[in-house]
Amino acid sequence: MKRSIRFRLNGRPTTLETDGDRTLLWVLRSDLEATGTKYGCGVGLCGSCTVVVDGEAVRSCQTPLSAVDGKEVVTIEGLAADDGRLHPLQQAFLDHGGYQCGYCTPGMIMNAYALLRSQPHPTRQQILDAMDGNLCRCSAYQRIVTAIEGVAAWGDAGDGRRSLRDPGPESGQAPSQTSGEASAGVVGGSTGGAR
Ligand code: FES
Ligand code: FES
Fold it and tell me: Which of 31, 47, 78 is the endpoint of a domain?
């Protein structure tokens, strides 16, 4: 049954008149052109569809749209700064080669984003535990964990808006930059793998 559902998507007020039983994943992809969020297994097992709702990582393939009514939804499209600078996690994935095909990358980054928001300095074991349910068919796991560790060591990446050139609170150094060519179209914006 159609109903009015309101939420904020990447900071923008969003209202839909639709069936609240539809999954958040398909509404994002089909109605809102937020195709950075990926369909993998469709049954809650792979994590490729992970988005963040009110600070919590959720599997959008298992989340009815009605569950986000009145909430704040962040997808991979919402991480880069308004001026186009990548979120530190996106940059770290580039710097450390934390992807191959990139299909799992948006879900990996959103899961890591939720982790760092709640726990800015997780240990390696805590990162492993938090990322355990996100699968990468290309098996880029070591590089993914190294990328997240790098941001965690630098600290305070959960806000998603800090300049990479700002000194970190502890290390005094930001993650290294890569070329603009390498940054383009991989994990920024609505990309991060095939549509
Ligand atoms: S597509 Fe949602 S967990 Fe796999
Ligand atoms: S990089 Fe290909 S699935 Fe993870």
Answer: 78
Which pLDDT value is given to residue 153?
A: 84
Q: State which residues form the domain around 16.
A: 2-78
- Nearest-angstrom CA–CA distance, 122 and 5: 35
Last residue of a domain, one of 40, 56, 78: 78
Instruction: Give the closest ligand to the alpha carbon of residue 103.
Output: 2
- Residue with the smallest CA separation from ligand 2 atom 4 is 136
CA of 15 to the centre of ligand 2 (A): 33
Residue 96 in any domain: the answer is yes
Cα 98 to middle of ligand 2, angstroms: 9
Tens-digit pLDDT profile for residues 52-108 = 999 999 999 999 999 999 999 999 999 999 999 999 999 999 999 999 999 999 999
Percentage helix, strand, coil, to 5, in the chain?
Answer: 35, 15, 50
